[in-house]
Specification:
Strand order of the largest sheet of chain A: 6-5-15-16-17-14-18
Oligomer: heterodimer
Number of helices of chain B: 15
Largest sheet of chain B: 7 strands, mixed
Distance between the termini of chain A: 48 Å
Helix content of chain B: 25-40%
Shape of chain B: globular
Structural class of chain A: alpha+beta
Number of strands of chain A: 22
Largest sheet of chain A: 7 strands, mixed
Strand content of chain A: 15-25%
Strand order of the largest sheet of chain B: 5-4-14-15-16-13-17
Radius of gyration of chain B: 24 Å
Strand content of chain B: 15-25%
Distance between the termini of chain B: 41 Å
Radius of gyration of chain A: 23 Å
Structural class of chain B: alpha+beta
């Protein structure tokens, strides 16, 4: 049976992102796209804030979403990176940025020189060699400039946006291109004898379709509710069982980085929007009692949610594919569910079947998607694995299960300070390096080809980089000042 | 650094692989006090049949600072824009696997999907008409590609047909000028460290017939099929792939050149194997790769000699091999590079490429004296991936056939293939989908060339092709075809271009001399972004 109509269940950020992507790709193919917004519950959890990494901004570009307009409409802010505090026994904090660090000499990565010289000289922290990091530490921001010779060209940034407002923008885009949105209370999904879903019964009538996309959040109404596809449990890999979300107004300017702060028995991610920050406190019931939260959080409005880590065993099964929390859920650090979402939508579009019976396509998609989930899981669990903060909660992180491939990656870094990218890897090598160095994984050696280079000369060059960065940052405007000026100049 | 650095590297074997390794290491360590020795014996012949290359070799040469035209002069080289495969899908079929992409992708949808849409609508257009290197190759034309990404002339890259033994000689000079020490002699014994420390089992020294003892910190085994160090000494074992690639012998013979100089390699399938034809400046290289289970050496030699363009210029050279791969390329302080590491038949000219990749990885992961197993493991995984992916691509050529005119082809057509390949083929059949990966040599354009060239026809195409109307596409296709043909026609003949670039008197007067473009590690020239 040929696919003529695609039905998306869920009108949250994932549902609207899928709708906007599909309508962009299929505009003139005659395939109809319909989104059902369930009346009874918020479609996707955790939508107070959405973090778009630089690697996902191409999507906004591809659908013609103007950056200034998006920032203005969603009360958004720029994001240069992530400030980690309290993860190490030493009081040291560090900033992990999206941007580059130092300069490569003769094709050899900067971290090799940093490691080599650091063995017998006092060098500044690794983040002092990244303009994005130094700017973020001082709450400054400006756009990169298009001149390879200038240090200002090394700035790389993401966006933090209000999730609900962002979904509205995407919905407007989709509606203007013919996507039909329907809302109503869902009674049940209708499954045919072949095991395919053929319709969703709403209180107001049945919406039929040939292919269904489950963006119903952790409820997973179609993939699990209708088709019974189970979850692969990842609770062994993450320490948290719950999260508490609360907002807090800014008191002094707008930070240009996201704060990741570890405490004895929990950690808090604090994402700055233009007027306030959205904070997510991740904890484990065993170590923090729900009743204690009020004493930890200085806010009257706390949304408490259980957090189940894991992914759908088959994110695509029969004629249903799941995206967002219906497919995968895990604590997010520098990369969020949006990074997975964009990437996997692209994979899905390439595999979009002509016919609803398409086990070969589903198998290939599941291979790609699950690989994406697992790689991000490994990246995320690094934070628990390498944290040296001492408490019962943090100590349990060192016992996490590690796959042989991931162990090899950590070992190679420990010995040589080297990260070799996997095929089609989502996480850039530079972000691995800055995370691992930041978490104190001090490599024993470096590229032997770096070792033959003149130490004096290198040391001088490296020092010069940090001087230039410090000087450039001084002249950069504060984030809020820049943001206001930028939106004004763009007529927003 | 905690561990002592490598102070002495020994390369065993001076074939193409040995001298490529030697040249790269001599260049890399020219400023360091690391000593590099190469041990070879004039009594031992080299295989040196890999005379067709792929564009990556240009990058290797460029890194070494080798002048392309000088290299071509020294190796009697000609240009190559692809390989023609004849009689593979069916007797009488022919297609070219080009060093270039087909057409242009539109909004992320690859060109072949649009072609498939037109094809299904009954348009009898050949996909070959949308590949500039194919069109040029068929006209015997050649010109350097342009670097301007907007130009149609940036849609391909090129490689060379070379005399590999001359290339080895050339690299030997290069390496010796940079301080590499060549030692003549046959190995009679290899000793290993017996100490009870981290060096246990490491190769300690090789002893030559003359009694000379060569010690080393790191040994590169380029001893060819004999695999003197990695197998005979370290016994890492071999993975046999001959059930998938059953050809196990080859006969090579050069002959006199005849006819126009072609800018491509020819691979013609016979009853139990295939024949290569590689045009050099001064002669043509030929060979017959075959499966001894289905054909005798005499019959194979007969077929080869009957299918030469001109008089043979030497006695046929008989070779035997078993397709497969060493379990470990790098074990302890020994790295196997070239035929000692594995053998894949030269159907897609991959031998020299695999040597080049191994060298690149070795430099990237260059060890200290301890030769950390973590580093070796990384190297081995990377080489496994390269070999496995090339292997699958080669198997495709044998398996995707309708030939039933011999027992050999009946076997290949019906044999069990690796799961990794079966999955790829099913997805292409389903809707022209090519499994995406970035690492590895052959990417989407190559898979499309062989699938379509060997009659693996998808049942459907990427739905996004339906964003365009047939009439619209027909117009777009017609224009592209016209532009590509015009561009190809404007190129000089291969022979004339060669004379111009190498400064030969007959043609250089009338043509403006040009510089070769920058090289890259890319088979297809410009990559659409």
């Amino acid at each position: 049976m040929k696919i003529e109509k695609i039905v998306i269940l869920g009108g949250g950020v994932s549902g609207c992102t899928v709708a906007a992507s599909l309508v962009g790709a299929l505009a003139n193919t005659g395939i109809a796209i319909c989104v059902i917004e369930p009346g009874q519950a918020e479609a996707d959890n955790n939508e107070e804030v959405v973090t778009l990494s630089p690697y996902t901004q191409v999507f906004n570009e591809s659908i013609g979403l103007d950056e200034a307009k998006t920032l203005a409409y969603t009360q958004g802010a720029f994001n240069l990176g992530f400030r980690f505090k309290g993860w190490q026994q030493s009081a040291q904090q560090f900033l992990q940025t999206y941007g580059s660090y130092g300069v490569d000499f003769e094709g050899i990565g900067f971290q090799n020189f940093y490691t080599m010289l650091g063995k017998n000289r006092k060098l500044e922290n690794y983040d002092r060699y990244s303009l994005s990091a130094v700017a973020a530490l001082q709450g400054k921001f400006s756009h990169p400039i298009d001149d390879n010779k200038s240090i200002l060209s090394t700035i790389t940034y993401g966006l933090n946006l209000d999730g609900r407002r962002y979904a509205e923008l995407l919905k407007k885009y989709a509606v203007a291109r013919g996507v039909v949105f329907k809302s109503g209370n869902i009674i049940k999904a209708a499954v045919s004898q072949s095991g395919n879903v053929h319709g969703i019964e709403l209180a107001t009538g049945t919406v039929t379709g040939d292919f269904f996309i489950d963006c119903s959040g952790s409820d997973a109404l179609l993939i699990n509710g209708a088709l019974g596809v189970g979850n692969i449990d990842w609770s062994d890999y993450f320490l948290s069982t719950h999260c508490a979300v609360f907002t807090r107004p800014h008191t002094d300017g707008v930070p240009s980085a996201t704060d990741m702060t570890a405490y004895d028995n929990y950690w808090v991610k604090s994402v700055p929007l233009r007027s306030h920050s959205v904070n997510t406190l991740m904890f484990n019931e065993k170590y923090v009692r729900v009743g204690e939260l009020d004493s930890l959080i200085d806010s009257s409005n706390i949304a408490l949610r259980p957090f189940a880590h894991g992914h759908r065993e088959h994110p695509w099964h029969k004629n249903v594919i799941a995206f967002g929390a219906a497919a995968v859920a895990m604590e997010s650090f520098a990369f969020s569910s949006m990074d997975i979402l964009y990437r996997n939508i692209q994979a899905f579009i390439k595999l979009l079947p002509v016919d609803i019976c398409c086990p070969v396509n589903a198998q290939e998609y599941n291979r790609i998607a699950i690989e994406t989930y697992e790689r991000l899981r490994d990246y995320n669990l690094c934070h628990y694995l390498l944290a040296t903060r001492v408490s019962d909660f943090w100590n349990s992180g060192s016992k996490m299960p590690i796959t042989p491939a991931f162990q090899q990656r950590l070992d190679l870094f420990r010995r040589r300070g080297k990260i070799i990218a996997h095929d089609s890897e989502m996480i850039p090598t530079a972000m691995w390096v800055s995370l691992l160095l930041g978490f104190g994984l001090d490599p024993q050696g470096c590229d032997p080809l770096a070792a033959v280079m003149d130490n004096e000369d290198l040391h001088e060059k490296i020092e010069r980089i940090s001087t230039i960065i410090a000087r450039t940052t001084e002249k950069m405007p504060h984030h809020l000042e820049y943001l206001e000026r930028y939106l004004m100049a763009q007529g927003r | 650094m905690h561990n002592p650095p490598i102070k002495k590297i020994v390369i065993l074997g001076g074939g193409t692989s040995g001298w490529m390794v030697a040249a790269a290491l001599a260049n890399q360590f020219k400023k360091s006090d690391c000593v590099i020795q190469l041990v070879e014996s004039e009594q031992i012949g080299t295989v040196g049949v890999g005379e067709a290359t792929i564009p990556h070799l240009r990058f290797f040469n460029e890194t070494l600072g080798i002048d392309e035209n000088e290299f071509m002069q020294r190796t009697n080289a000609t240009y190559k824009m692809g390989i023609e495969f004849k009689n593979w899908g069916r007797l009488g079929d022919a297609y070219i696997h080009p060093f270039g992409e087909y057409g242009h992708e539109i909004n992320g949808t690859s060109f072949h999907h649009f072609w498939l849409k037109l094809h299904r609508a009954g348009e009898s257009t050949l996909i070959d008409d949308y590949s500039l290197p194919i069109i040029a190759a068929k006209l015997n034309k050649f010109e350097y590609p342009e670097t301007n990404r907007r130009s149609i002339l940036s849609t391909y890259s090129y490689a060379f047909h070379i005399d590999a033994s001359l290339y080895a000689k050339y690299l030997r000079e290069y390496a010796e000028q940079r301080g590499l020490l060549r030692v003549e002699g046959k190995v009679v014994e290899v000793t290993q460290h017996q100490s009870d420390d981290q060096y246990r089992g490491f190769i300690k020294e090789i002893i030559l017939e003359s009694g000379e003892v060569i010690v080393g910190d790191l040994f590169i085994d380029c001893s060819g099929f004999r695999a003197l160090l990695i197998e005979q000494t370290l016994k890492v074992g071999y993975r046999d792939w001959s059930h998938w690639l059953p050809c196990d012998r080859a006969i090579a013979v050069p002959c006199k050149s005849a006819g126009e100089l072609l800018p491509y390699t020819k691979s013609t399938a016979h009853q139990a194997g295939w024949q290569w034809r590689i045009p050099l400046q001064h002669r043509t290289g030929n060979g017959h790769v075959y499966c001894s289970q289905y054909i005798s050496d005499d019959e194979a030699a007969d077929i080869l000699l009957k299918n030469l363009d001109g008089q043979p210029e030497a006695e046929p050279n008989f070779l035997r091999f078993k397709t497969g791969r060493r379990n470990l390329s790098w074990d302890k302080n020994c790295v196997a590079i070239g035929l000692s590491d594995g053998f894949l038949e030269p159907l897609e000219s991959t031998s020299i490429y695999l040597v080049q990749i191994a060298i690149t990885k070795l430099l990237e992961l260059f060890p200290d004296k301890i030769c950390d197993s973590v580093v070796a493991h990384e190297f081995n995984s990377a080489m496994d991936l390269e070999f496995d992916r090339v292997r699958d691509f080669l198997i495709l050529h044998y398996h995707a056939t309708e030939r039933n005119d011999s027992e050999f082809w009946n076997y290949c057509r019906t044999m069990a293939i690796p799961e990794s390949l079966a999955g790829k083929m099913a997805l292409f059949r389903q809707q022209g989908y090519v499994v995406p990966y970035e690492k590895g040599l052959f990417l989407e354009p190559s898979w499309v060339a062989v699938y379509l060239g060997q009659r693996v026809m998808p049942q459907a195409y990427d739905i996004r092709a339906d964003n365009f109307q047939i009439a619209e596409l027909k117009k777009y296709f017609a224009e592209m075809k016209r532009n590509m043909h015009l561009a190809a026609q404007a190129m000089p003949l291969h022979a004339a271009c060669l004379s111009r670039n190498l400064g030969k008197s007959d043609a250089s007067g009338s043509m403006e001399k040009r510089q070769p473009p920058r090289a890259s590690m890319n088979l297809y020239g410009r990559r659409s972004s």
